[in-house]
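Data card: per-record layout.
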Amino acid sequence: MLEIDKSSDDKYVKFTVRKKVNNWKYFKIIVMIMMLMGNNMIISDIISEYNNFNINIDININIKMIINIMIIGMIIREIINKDTIIEENLLIIPTLGIQIEDLRGNKKFIPRENIKDIVINEGFKGNKVIYYMCVINRDNTNNNNNNNNIEVVFPNILPSISILEEVYRDT
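The structure for this 171-residue chain is written out next.
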């Protein structure tokens, strides 16, 4: 999902790409239900062993109840928990440069005079073709102007080609 925020006086344009991450929600719920069933079986075995020795088992039943309530609470929390939404930003200030922000909040500013080009490139990730946008900038640390650095925009989300094209048209 792409969100574009333009200032009224055209001083900046901010592109925000968001992605919903499921975080294995249903898998976690199934594992917790299995833990709940396993917990009941294990504690039942322990109680039957103590019954063979004629030992008072009231404490074990209370432990069983507490553990079951904790696991049921974790299951309810997972059901209520919403999916995580991650976002990455590209801030363009035409008079100053570009700022790239990743999902961890790391920001990288590239001054306007260092920007050589902005391109959409394709690459491979496993057997899949992915598209990514990158900023090619000059490295002005040494006197050789042939050194170029590449900064990937939206490096963790890797949005679809249609979103990248829309961002590219507005840059």
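Known properties of this structure: Strands lie at 2-6, 13-21, 84-93, 97-101, 107-111, 115-125, 128-138, 148-153. The helical segments are 25-52, 58-80, 161-170.

See the next section for split statistics.
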